[in-house]
Amino acid sequence: MEALLRELPVHQGLARMFGSLGQEGFWRSLVDTLRLLVPVDNALVALMRPGRVPQLLADFEFRGGLDEREDLADYCAGRYLLDPFYLAACNGIADGLHRLESVAPDQFLQSEYYLSYFRAVVGGGELQFICNLDDAVLSLSLGREQAFADHEHGRLLCVRDWVLAAMRRHVQIMPPEGPANEEMASDLASILGRFDARLTEREMDTARLILQGFSSKAIAQRMGISPETVKVHRRNLYNKLNVSGHAELFALLLHPH
Question: Are 111 and 119 in contact (CB under 8 A)?
Fold first, then answer.
């Protein structure tokens, strides 16, 4: 009985959340209930479709001093192209609760995207509830400064099934307002193609994987070439674009003008 009473706020939160299905306050009720289980700094709800700019449905920031609109504008302006969860959604990801480390490249934490953007906006840890719909992937991202511990991931796993069921049911009752986002997503290759650098297909692939956070060894494995060949592609790529390294390549990609 004592254990049940300790969880009373969670049960009350569940009641509020289920009572708000199909209403404006649903996402906030759901996030607030999950925050009773694990501390969370921010949350973002999005619909992701291959070849389309993500459609943001709700966002919540529980830390002071951050400009949410500017952060999300930057995300939609092109940073989503390097988001491991967006890429996983486009390539096929199963329903469930996924950890950042399960979808991110091997050197994601050393990537310029993580160091200059992700770490400040999302934090050092992220979990996402993923729900596949007919034509999109619905995601609820939970982020915070510190990575989620195994026992916290376990707590959220215990509620995974009802969270996914509630997410799916809510969008069935209350579809997102307005038409689906039809704005075509940019492509790293097309962005790099704006420069008169005449990059080869292999150099384009190398640039994409570098920016996503793959190590030379991982790039070699994915491309079926030797690490030494990867180094050649990297050197040629940097020379053609007149950049000195990863950081300048990242800046060039996001500020092509």
Answer: no
- Alpha-carbon distances, residue 16 vs 62, 138, 174 (angstroms): 20, 21, 17
Identify which of 185, 181, 186, 238 has the alpha carbon closest to the alpha carbon of residue 207: 238
Closest-CA residue to 208 (of 90, 44, 43, 54): 90
Identify the burial level of 151 via C-beta atoms within 10 angstroms of its C-beta, where 0-12 means exposed, 13-18 middle and 19 or more buried: exposed
How far is it, in rounded angstroms, from Cα 219 to Cα 227? 8
Question: Poorest-confidence range of 22-31, 96-105, 195-204, 219-228?
Answer: 195-204
Lowest mean pLDDT among 81-90, 91-100, 203-212: 203-212
d(CA 205, CA 79): 17
The structure's pTM equals: 0.86
pLDDT in tens, 184-228: 556 676 777 666 668 888 888 898 899 889 999 999 998 999 989
All domains in the chain, ordered by first residue: 2-173 (3.30.450.80), 188-254 (1.10.10.10)
Contacts of 197 (CB under 8 A, 6+ apart): 240, 241
What residues have CB less than 8 Å from 239, skipping those under 6 apart?
none
Kindly tell me the sign of the dihedral angle through the C-alpha atoms of 72, 54, 84, 220. Answer: negative
The Cα diameter of the chain in Å comes to 70
| 203, 195 Cβ separation under 8 angstroms | no
